[in-house]
Amino acid sequence: KVELKKEEIKKGDITIKKENGDINIENGTIIYKVTITSNYGTSSEVRLEDVMSKLEFDGTITAKKNDVETTINVTPTKDGFTACLPKMKAGDTYELIYKAKLPEGYQGTAIKAHNSIEAKSTNSDNKEITSKSEIDTVFDDGTIKKSGVKNEDGTVTWTITINEQEKDISGWTLKDILNGNTELNGTKATID
User: Fold this and answer.
1) pTM for the full model?
2) CA-based Rg of the chain, rounded to a whole angstrom?
3) What gap in Å lies between CA 160 and CA 147, rounded to an integer?
4) pLDDT of residue 40
5) Cβ proximity of 162 and 169 under 8 Å
6) Which of 38, 51, 118, 181 could cysteine-pair with 88, CB 3.0–4.6 Å?
């Protein structure tokens, strides 16, 4: 944890915050909202780096500076994007809204995606100032869930819940793969 003395903060600061917006499980898309603020301003441009895990940036960002629409230059990368904001004045706020999507073939599956964004600039002493925000998003429509309970004899009773939302899953195949040295003890299944 880094603590800044009040006089150091007055020389420049930056704060970034990322929030989840609308999530579309079936299409595998999410809208992110990022807010970048500076109470005391920055002495140089603000460099942004967004890194996505299990997601792809869709290529467009809607940007506002102090509630007025603006344009920023964005460079897509293999796992997110980079962007640059002009030097911020005291009290400036940027709001960025953009969409990310799961890679092709993963829509409708249960996946935990991670996304982080970092802002870097300098203060009036030309020292680097940074702020980072991270967020996890779970794409899970609840179509299938699995849980296990360890029994007194050391065996595990598994429960698999399928299709609580009563979606059309015709043509689906249920396959449960055991890991490591696990053995299946009998082939008994109870269907409720």
Assistant:
1) 0.70
2) 23
3) 7
4) 94
5) yes
6) 38
